[in-house]
Amino acid sequence: MIILIIYQIDKRRDHCGMDTNSIRRENLRALAATHKSQADFAAACGTAPSVISLIISPNPKRNLGHRLARKIEEAQGLPSGWLDSEHPKENGEAPIEVNFLPAALAQKIANYRSVIEIERFDVSGSMGPGSEPPEINTVVETMSLDASWVRQNLVYTSVDNLKLISGRGDSMSPTIRNGDPVLVDVGVVSIEADAIYFFIMRGQLHIKRVQRDLDGLTIISDNDKYQSIRVPADREEDLTILAQIIYWWNGRNF
């Protein structure tokens, strides 16, 4: 069962005097966010990825102890005790007093976000015969996702490229159902791997699975009531890839 994880603001962060474990955890999350992955961060700190994950996951299973905290500070070029101290926040998010850090690290920490706001557009990708593109792309709401969960569970080109649309129709059922919110990566505009894509074909919007082979593409519906569509290599330009589907939330009405 796929579960939507919405970030809940920890009210303790609205007040000073957080306990040392909470302070270390928040600072460690900010440091981890400056690396491509938790595995890269753990390697840079000389510890195991599982140790970092247990500390900074949305549901942490352990605290950051004194010895490991000092080891990480040394590995990251930070002064001893940096992880133990609260740093001024801007809008409850990124530390702003980082002038003593190396410029690249300071910039990455300044860009750290514990919550990612993703725009939801009034756009539906057809899981059927196709749908007309809207005349204007309108943002109807935003969804807040826990940044740690996004980094750990999704593969994407950039956080800024993540958008929400809706799926309409039954051709991708039971994978994606009619009305499901669909998370797309608009940074993917070509078919580099077999995946589910959001694309325009013959002026119509579609959400379908696309597979590449030596002779072109095959557009596949997960619902076996719909036939696959072959697109020969010399007709691939008939498809305009708008995004890759990277996540969706299944729902049913009872």
Helical coverage, percent range: 10-25%
Number of helices in the DSSP assignment: 6
Return the average pLDDT rounded to an integer. 80
Q: What is the end-to-end distance?
A: 17 Å
The CATH topology of the largest domain is Umud Fragment, subunit A
Uncertain regions spanning at least 5 consecutive residues: 1-17, 90-97
The biggest beta sheet, please? 9 strands, mixed
CATH class of the largest domain: Mainly Beta
General form: elongated
Fourth-level CATH superfamily of the largest domain: Umud Fragment, subunit A
Beta-strand portion reads: 25-35%
For the biggest β-sheet, the strand order reads 4-3-5-6-11-7-8-9-10
The CATH architecture of the largest domain can be named as: Ribbon
Number of discrete domains: 2
Seen as an oligomer or otherwise, the chain set is single chain
Our Rg estimate from Cα atoms comes to 22 Å
Order of helices and strands: HHHHEEHEEHEEEEEEE
The assigned structural class equals alpha+beta
What's the count of strands?
11
